[in-house]
Amino acid sequence: MVVPHALVVPYPAQGHVDPLMELSHRLAKLGILVTFVHTEFSHAHVMAALPENCFGEYNGGIRLVTIPDGAANDEERRDRSRFFVVIKRSMPSFLEELIVKINEREENKITYVIVDGFIGFLLNVAEKLKIPRAAFFPASTWQLAILLNIGKLLDSGFINHNGSVQNYDKAADILEDVHPIRPKHPCWVNYKDVKWQVICFKYLCNNFEAVKHVDHILCNSFSELELPVFRHLNGAVPIGPLLSANRSTLPQPSSFWAEDLSCIDWLDQQPNCSVIYVSFGSMTVLRQQQISELALGLELTGRPFLWVCRPDLMEFSPAIYPDGFLDRVSKQGRVVNWTPQKEVLSHPSVACFLTHCGWNSALEGLSNGVPMLCWPYFFDQFQNQTYIVELWKVGLALAEDSLGIVRKEEIKEKIEDLIKNDGIRKRVTELKDKVRKAVMDGSGVSTRNLECFASTMKGAKARFTTNNTEKLQ
Ligand code: UDP
After folding, report:
1. Where in the chain is the domain with CATH 3.40.50.2000?
2. What's the rounded Cα separation, in Å, for the pair 439 and 418?
3. Fewer CB in 10 Å around end: N or C, the chain?
């Protein structure tokens, strides 16, 4: 008998590796063998971040393998204008070589390939080798709708052939019943450098052409959250949110920084619903002046805070805190390099989440019923802010001053407004409940879709649902 064996390939960044690792665990639990492909660079980082000796070749039935990303070891991978070109040129042949090797030498051949949409060009490798394939989309399905409808955005004159928005005062109303797409919503427009914008746009156009041709695009979302969007996208299957909350978790080979577990002990000592949790995800970069202003703003609140200040939160040098800041706040707050964020957000001491609005962070905030204060930095984060603040109404937005700085007074004021806002707390609690239902064992729509997908990998016919009554295909 052929054992279903999935090869899972994430784009090499934190917010992509995390949900695909979770998907791998779910598939393994459903009887699928999983081989998870890290780039050598990612692999070195996630292994260095793990506590010693806690991980072997197999982890909960998942095998890790690596391929090169094509960039030199010491090359700066944050410069995506170059990185996109390099991975697109190099990764297909490395992936093909890997699959051919596994299928020639091993008893359990790769029977299915799941590729992150942001490296959608790798789907062509599976097609060439005649292996069934699916895409996974780690951001919102609304962002996916943009990427699959670039043609309509061009035809409507919203963007030009370089992806540049033509009129910053106009939204694109291209999908019936879906909130109009605003100038800051397409992910590629939010690179500060226009050169990056164009490279990113061309890269994404090419990628999502490949994604359009797969039967299934697995979405890290749930139907009730984005129903109008799902109605437009044949083949988009809601299977999320893919959070590890329902699984006893060992440290995973998916975190690029070592988690500071002592922050949980610190949270244990704080009063219920008192702590401001501050995290900008894995890629945000802030200016020194902004870091100082944020530090002073948190101090000014007089409330306990837990602030994730990644070692590379500033681009070229470690952040410098205002004079005496760390001493003055030693009893009030904690500043750490990296946290076990899902655990932090589920802690009863956490009152609100100051977030950069990465999709994973937004889902984690929702799933734990935590009101959010939005500080988007780039990519899809402005669209996610629209969801959080205007459509779901579970958070507030921070405003920059005329110099592009979010001032300490603004930080204090908005945190107070957010904490006192009962409407927001009520709505986020309702959404938390909807998340719980979507991923419930047995009856959750996302859970059932994932089970159905696993059955298709075993040869069954697909029958996915967007909600309890409506069949997608
Ligand atoms: N994260 C974490 N610890 C931290 C900060 C972030 O584990 O201290 C995780 C967070 O839980 C989320 C991921 O990093 O799953 C970041 O993904 P997201 O989509 O929010 O943002 P990105 O890093 O892609 O900008």
Report:
1. 5-243+439-457, 262-434
2. 28
3. N
Whether the Cβ atoms of residue 297 and residue 408 lie closer than 8 Å to each other: yes
Q: What is the pLDDT of residue 288?
A: 95
8 Å CB contact between 158 and 189: no
Looking at residue 473, what is its pLDDT?
43
262-434 folds as Rossmann fold (3.40.50)
3-state secondary structure (DSSP) of residue 308:
strand
Q: Report the pLDDT value the prediction gives residue 469, as an integer from 0 to 100.
A: 41
Looking at domain 5-243+439-457, its CATH superfamily turns out to be Glycogen Phosphorylase B; (3.40.50.2000)
Residue nearest to atom 1 of ligand 1 (CA): 341
Q: Which atom of ligand 1 is nearest to the CA of 381?
A: 25
64 CA to centre of ligand 1 in angstroms? 21
CA–CA separation, 383 and 368 (whole Å): 21
Cβ neighbours, 10 Å, residue 413: 17
Kindly report the backbone phi and psi dihedral angles of residue 401, in degrees, each rounded to the nearest multiple of 5, phi listed first.
-85, -175
Structure token digits, residue 208: 């999502």
The conformation of residue 165, written as its DSSP 8-state character, comes to B
Q: Which of 263, 265, 224, 221 is nearest to 243 (CA)?
A: 221
What is the 8-class DSSP label of residue 13?
S
Residue stretches of the chain with pLDDT short of 70: 53-60, 245-250, 466-473
What are the backbone angles phi and psi of residue 68, rounded to the nearest 5°? -70, 155
Question: Which residues have a Cβ under 8 Å from the Cβ of 53 and sit 6 or more positions away?
Answer: none
CA dist., res. 14 & res. 342, Å (int): 14
Minimal CA–CA distance to 281: which of 224, 229, 351, 345? 345
Other Cβ atoms within 10 Å of 186 Cβ, number: 27
Answering whether pTM is above 0.85, one says yes
Distance between alpha carbon 294 and the CA centroid of its chain, in Å? 24
What is the Cα–Cα distance from 305 to 326, expressed in whole angstroms?
A: 12
